[in-house]
Design brief:
By secondary structure, this protein is mainly alpha-helical. The protein contains 31 helices and ten strands. The strands form four sheets. Strands 6-5-3-8 form a four-stranded mixed β-sheet.
């Protein structure tokens, strides 16, 4: 009982942890959608600190540490080499020596086991002699003395064939006491079970021959049952066999894992199936598995000797430090290699202190970001500055400067390696456009423009004397944004990446025409870098938007496209459990898709939102009219309980949307598509059933909790939802009745002020009504009724 109770408690704990995780996720997603001023200020300041750190000039060193006591200390400034140096690299030499040691294979010694296997044959023969002697002494009393040997041999063969079973039992019992004799001759202890098994077949000559041929065949391979350790990375070993050293692949070793397989394999190669039946072959396998010995073993002393030789053969590694190369960045730990370089550097810089430059750049960068942020908040209506938007913007800003910092670090050594090219052309390689495009796809165009201005103004702390590269990054980013405003297929992004590569190449050519300090010899490499950058922008955009969608609960057109193919588990579940709601959702999707085009909304997003707006009805489908088949469950309920069931589909839909991570826009569609509308039927029914003046019939109890639609998208879905339900219930559907029905339903929603918070204009509403009438007429094949001619 106690154990059962403990198991039950553990299950409850698991469930509790899962619930806590779900609750945390819900709270976190709600927090992401808020706009908290203190948090925004914190992010801007933190991002400015990080960017300032990454963009400090390299020429601020004041004193180079040259004492060994400085090893392990933090570098206070970024140090560059003033000329070329050649220095012995102890660490690299050590690594090369360790690498050389690690490349030394294991050495094994070979053991000749042929004499051992001959002893096994002799042991078998001795046991057969004992058996023949026992038969002759016990079962040939009435046989002529001259014929006893012949009779005993015949009787032995008959017992082997399965005859004389009673006499065979005596023989087996007799021979069982000679196990030690067998072990002494064979030279190896034998398992009792195996000895008994061999005794049962009277140490058959066939078994002996099969065993001997198998053992000698396997001995021609290399057997090491222990096997090579998993941490051994080389693919070969060396075997000392006499005076020769043989290098073989580790896959050729027979280990414990492959031993039984090899025995079976060689039985087939030796055609033992012709000599023995399955039972006999199985017995041979068991004996071989027991008797066979490893014929190689690790020679530790020889292996260590070879490793020492490899260690001593490695020469010192000389490394070069080129002029202008970064030796150690500010904030990094000083190591012995740095001390060696610093000792050879004779010239030192004595410019502005690190602290002064850091504070100056930090204050300037923070001021720029704060002013930009306030200007956009006040003047750009669609600028989005929720918590998650701020995290996205400034995280990507930091990513850009990290890419810049990495490129700057690698540019000088690579420029020397490639052929002493201008290190500045490596800036063409930075794939900035994907960061701006990600902001556009995840938020909106206005916010992506803010991001462009933010990183361009920040760039002037890096390029104070030149506007060429800031312009290059800005123009290429804006071009890419214009090409990826709506992406419905991931392949489209890759295609646009190639187009971006072409555009960046053209811009790069203009840069060479404007900046005469960059040699024209660098044009081929610069163009190759711009093409690589364009391609990388497309690839990275695909990966990054997926990461941001998952981390910050964003939803893009690509995700909406996946939701719109009706293969989502919720849509499949709805089709089975609530088919009426499923058909209703498809029709609403068709209505909003066409209407969205007419009023300039994203039709793909609107259609996906429409498909999922009623998923809460999956929980209790039978309580909604479109799913009922002659039985109305509400006849059994009071009006207020019916209202609770109907209203709860919104709450249950939100829970399902969060569980399946459908995203904020679909959650808003579920939450807002009913607004705070009144459920008139049940309210009227409650009033009719209540006594006159009964205060318990409260209108607010029969209203949805809201909120009202806060966007044009959710407002459109509210209209489509109401119109589709009303038109579907009409007994006759001609063009005029559909038109009148749409007009009445939309006007009723407007009069109830349900669209007061979604910025939908009268022009939008007129276009929506016309689109609804057109779509519904097509669905129901309604035609205009023309007057009949008078006879």
């Amino acid at each position: 009982m106690a154990k059962k109770e403990n198991i039950r408690l553990k299950k409850n704990n698991k469930t509790s942890f899962k619930d806590k995780l779900v609750s945390f996720e819900i709270v976190f997603n709600e927090w992401l959608r808020k706009s908290i001023t203190k948090f925004q200020a914190f992010v801007i300041i933190a991002a400015s600190l990080i960017i300032t750190w990454l963009t400090l000039p390299d020429s601020i060193m004041t004193k180079l540490p040259i004492e060994n006591e400085s090893i392990g200390e933090t570098m206070e400034f970024t140090a560059r080499s003033d000329r070329d140096y050649s220095i012995v690299d102890d660490d690299a030499t050590q690594k090369e020596r360790v690498k050389a040691q690690n490349n030394v294979p294991l050495y094994f010694s070979y053991i000749d086991s042929s004499l051992y296997y001959k002893n096994i044959s002799q042991a078998f023969a001795s046991q057969r002699e004992l058996i023949l002697s026992f038969i002759k002494a016990n079962f040939t009393q009435n046989v002529d003395e001259k014929l006893k040997d012949i009779y005993a041999g015949a009787m032995f063969r008959a017992m082997t064939a399965g005859n004389f079973r009673k006499e065979k039992e005596s023989v087996v019992k007799y021979i069982s006491q000679y196990r030690q004799s067998f072990e002494k001759i064979s030279g190896v202890p034998i398992n009792e079970n195996i000895y008994n098994a061999v005794s049962e077949v009277l140490f058959s000559k066939k078994i002996e021959q099969a065993l001997y041929s198998l053992l000698t065949k396997l001995d021609s391979y290399y057997i090491y049952r222990t096997g090579i350790n998993n941490d051994y990375t080389l693919s070969t070993i060396v075997i000392e066999k006499g005076d020769a050293f043989l290098e073989i692949g580790t896959e050729k070793l027979i280990s414990l894992n492959t031993f039984l397989y090899e025995i079976k394999h060689h039985q087939k190669k030796l055609h033992q199936d012709r000599l023995l039946n399955e039972e006999g072959r199985k017995l041979v396998r068991s004996i071989a598995y027991w008797f066979i010995k490893d014929n190689i073993y690790i020679d530790t002393s020889l292996t260590e000797k070879k490793k020492m030789e490899a260690w001593n053969s490695v020469q010192d590694t000389i490394f070069s430090v080129k002029r202008g190369e970064i030796i150690r960045r500010a904030g990094e730990k000083i190591n012995a290699r740095d001390i060696k370089i610093f000792k050879q550097i004779k010239q030192q810089s004595a410019q502005a202190s690190f602290l002064f430059l850091f504070i100056r750049n930090f204050l300037l960068l923070t001021l720029i970001q704060v002013i930009l942020f306030l200007v956009f908040v006040k003047n750009i209506k669609k600028f989005s500055y929720r918590n998650k938007d701020i995290i996205l913007i400034y995280s990507q800003l930091i990513i850009f400067f990290l890419l810049y910092d990495i490129t700057q670090t690698l540019s000088i050594p690579f420029s020397e390696w490639i052929g002493n090219i201008d290190a500045r052309i490596f800036f063409f390689l930075i794939p900035v456009p994907f960061l701006v495009a990600a902001t556009r796809l995840l938020i909106n165009t206005e916010t992506s423009i803010f991001f462009v201005i933010s990183f361009i103004t920040s760039l002037f702390t890096i390029f104070p004397d030149s506007i060429i590269f800031p312009i290059y990054f800005a123009v290429s980013s804006l071009f890419f944004v214009s090409r990826v405003t709506h992406i419905e297929h991931r392949s489209t992004i890759v295609r646009e990446g190639f187009l971006l590569a072409l555009t960046q190449s053209v811009i790069a050519l203009f840069i060479f025409a404007l900046d005469f300090t960059i040699s024209l010899d660098n044009i081929p490499r610069a163009l190759s870098f711009t093409c690589t950058s364009g391609f990388l922008s497309g690839i990275l955009l695909i990966g990054f938007i997926s990461i941001w969608e998952w981390l910050l609960n964003y939803t893009t057109d690509i995700t909406f496209l996946e939701y719109s193919n009706l293969n989502h588990p919720l849509m499949k579940q709805m089709a089975v459990q609530a088919n009426g709601t499923y058909q209703h959702s498809l029709t609403v999707g068709a209505l909003v898709e066409e209407a969205a085009i007419q009023i300039g909304l994203n039709p793909l997003a609107c259609k996906a939102m429409a498909y999922f707006h009623d998923i809460g009805k999956i929980e209790r489908p039978e309580y909604f009219s479109e799913n009922q088949t002659g039985i109305n469950r509400h006849d059994e309920l009071k009006p207020n309980m019916s209202a609770v069931v109907i209203i709860n589909h919104v709450k249950q839909g939100i829970e399902l949307a969060r569980k399946h991570h459908l995203g904020e826009k679909i959650e808003n569609a579920i939450r807002e598509h009913q607004g705070d509308a009144l459920i008139k039927y049940f309210y009227a029914k409650a009033k009719s059933e209540a006594k006159e003046g009964d205060p318990s019939v409260d209108e607010s109890f029969f209203r949805y909790p809201g909120p009202r639609p806060g966007s044009r998208e959710t407002g459109l879905i509210m209209l489509a939802d109401s119109v589709e339900a009303a038109i579907r219930s009409m007994p006759e559907k001609n063009f005029q009745k559909i038109s009148d029905g749409v007009e009445n339903i939309v006007n009723r929603i407007i009069q109830d002020s349900q669209l007061s918070e979604c910025n939908m204009t009268m022009k939008d509403i007129s276009a929506i009504k016309a689109s609804f009438v057109k779509t519904l007429s097509g669905i129901y094949h309604a035609r205009i009724e023309y007057p009949q001619p008078v006879a």
